[in-house]
Amino acid sequence: MSKFLCDRMLGKLATWLRLFGYDTLYAGDINIDYDEDYFLINEFRERILLTRDKELYKRAKDLRPVFLIKSDRLEEQLKELKSLGIKFELKMDRCSVCNGILRKPTREEALEVMRREGIREDLMKRFELWYCERCKKLYWMGGHWRNMKKFLEEHGLDC
Questions:
Q1: Side-chain half-sphere of 135: how many Cα atoms within 13 Å?
Q2: E-assigned strand segments in the chain
Q3: Cα–Cα distance for residue pair 27/89, rounded to 1 Å
Q4: pLDDT at 159 over 70
Q5: Do 69 and 57 touch, CB atoms closer than 8 A?
Q6: What pTM did the predictor assign?
Q7: Distance CA 98, CA 101 (A)
Q8: What span, in angstroms and rounded, lies between the C-alpha atoms of 108 and 44?
């Protein structure tokens, strides 16, 4: 399965790639204390660099795997990625916020998040839950999940 590194112009795309289960780093989440283009070209070379920056693409193309995203619209960006073999299947594998691996929460972990976030405890009875240890976030396949599936269907991206 492909791994990605997205430049700062592709934050929304990075989130969606994580929702599809792809290990995706986003430049905006990384503390880069030197030239960001240099970092994107030279670090995490096992990942495909996704960028909207034509100059960055030109500088990187002979040095690492890189793919130039032309559109600024998410649905078009996803269509562009089809050529890389991306599967548009929503999964509960990765945290959409931090890219951490999701797992089933303990009852205590779920209750802690629900109390902190003001989520009703009956959610545990109605939905299967997933948990990100890194950012302490809960996930479930509720209304937001249905809206994402609808978005994919409306744009001909569903698998």
A1: 14
A2: 3-6, 23-26, 48-51, 66-68, 102-103, 130-132, 137-139
A3: 24
A4: no
A5: no
A6: 0.93
A7: 9
A8: 36
Tens-place pLDDT, residues 28-75:
999 988 899 999 999 999 999 999 999 999 999 999 999 999 999 999
Tokens of residue 142, six digits: 């509720």
Which tokens is 5 given? Answer: 């590194």
The label of the residue with tokens 């990625």 reads: 81
Tell the residue number behind the tokens 């409306």, with chain if given: 154
Q: Please name the residue that has the structure tokens 């995203």.
A: 69
pLDDT in tens, 13-26: 999 999 999 999 99
Q: How far apart are CA 4 and CA 156, in angstroms?
A: 23
Report which of 104, 113, 96 is spatially closest to residue 21, judged by C-alpha positions: 96
Phi-psi map region of 99: left, alpha, beta (phi>0 left; psi -120 to 50 alpha) = left
87-101 pLDDT per residue, tens: 999 999 999 999 999
